User: Fold this.
Amino acid sequence: MPAWYSAADFYISGSHSEGGSYALLEAMACGCIPIVTAIPATLKMTGDGKYGIIFQPGNVEDLANKLNDLSSIDKLALSTSVENYFREELSNTAIADKLFGYCKELLAK
Assistant:
């Protein structure tokens, strides 16, 4: 999958609802810029859109406007920030480190 996602600039998903997306995580791990619907799972995974482009579910005009605006973004900078955000917040290591920290806090009480 890394070769596939690394060859793409963007990952697009038009979900109306889901609890999370492994495909989105895999794409972000490779620096693919997410273009996803504004649903709770994708908002959380993209840092409320800071690390991706968000459009309203079912709103074709909103998506078209976001796609038309892509020429004005710094793709390399956003791709790098997406990959860094994944590594620091969403990777297995980041999640394990957070859980370990929470456990240490609980045991200290």
